[in-house]
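Subject: for your reference before the review

Hello V.,

The reviewers asked for a structural picture of the protein, and I figured it would be easier to keep everything in one thread rather than splitting it across files. Below is the amino acid sequence we used in the manuscript, unchanged from the supplementary table.
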Amino acid sequence: MKTWDALSEIQPIAVNMLKQMIIKQRVAHAYLIYGDKGTGKAMLGLMLAKSLFCQNKHGGEPCLACVNCRRIDSGNHPDLHWIRPDGASIKKEQIAHLQKEFTYTGLESNQKVYLITQADLMTTNAANRLLKFLEEPSQQTTAILLTENYQSILDTIKSRCQIISLKPLVTQRVQTRLESEGISKENARLFASVSQNLDQARALNQDEWFAQARKLVVQLVGILQANHGEALLFIQKQWLQHFSDREQQNFGLDLILYWFKDLIYLDIDQKDSLVFIAYYEELEKCLWHWSRADATKVIYAIMDAKRNLNYNVHPTLVMEQLTLQMQR
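And here is what came back from the structure prediction:
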C-alpha cells in the first residue's frame, strides 16, 4: 500500500485527516499514531514522511518516483530518522543522539522527520528527554510517534502531539478477500486473525515456518492433555528451537492465546468466532481437559508470559513457567 488512496481503504478517517493537513500546509510538528497491531501505523508514518519530502507531490499524494521517495523506500534518506527499541526499551541515549543529529543542517533541505516505533517502550528518562525536544520544535521538524499502547504515553507528550487514532481492521473483510483468491475458509480465517495486513496474511499461505508453528501449537496442547510429563522436554527440544527470537516467541504465544480463546468460544457456542476452525475436533477434545475457567486462567498466564518476554526474562524460563501453568 504505497499511496494515500490505497491506505484509505483500511483507515479512511486517518488518511483524510492527514491528506487535508498536507494539502492545506498545516502539518503539525508532532503526531502520535496509535492502533492495534496490523492497523497500518508504520505505513501511515512512512506516507506522511514521503508527503513531506516529495519533490513532485500532487494533491497530497507523493510521486513515489523522485529521489526522496525512492530513498525513503530503500531506508536511507539522510533526513529521516527511525528510533526503535534497543532491547526491551527505547533509552535516553537514543533520544540524546537524535537531538544531536537534529542540531545539524539537513543534508537535502531544512526538513527533518523522525519516527519512533513502539513509543510506549521509552524509559522514563527517554520520555522526559523527548518531551523537552517536543517543547522546542524546529519549524521544519516533524515527529511521528507510533504505538499500540496509547495509555502508556505520558500525558505531557500526548498534549504536544496531533493524535491520530486508527480503527481496528475487520478480520472478516480480510478473510473474505483471501477466500476469493482461492484460500480455504479454514486457512483464511487463521491467516486473517494472525495478521490483518492483507499482504502479510496472504503470504502466510506459502510460509513453511508458519505452517510448522501451527503444527507445534497443536502438538503442544496434545501433549498437555496426555499429561505424560513430556511437555517441558517438548518446549526445550522443539518449541524453543522453532521460535528462536523474541518476535517469533511472541508470535508463538499469540497462537497459543488464539487456541485457548477458541476453547471459550466453543464452550459458549460461538463457533463463528473460532480461529482454529481446521482443528475443530481437537478443540472439542480440549474441552474435556480444560474448563472455561481453566482456559481463562491460561489466557491470563499467556499475557503475563508476553509481558515477561518484553521485560527481557529468559524465554526458556518464560515458556517453562507457562507450560506448568497450562498443565492440570
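For the response letter, the relevant points are probably these. Residues 305 and 317 are 10 Å apart (CA to CA). The chain has a mean pLDDT of 89.

Happy to draft the paragraph if you're swamped.

O.
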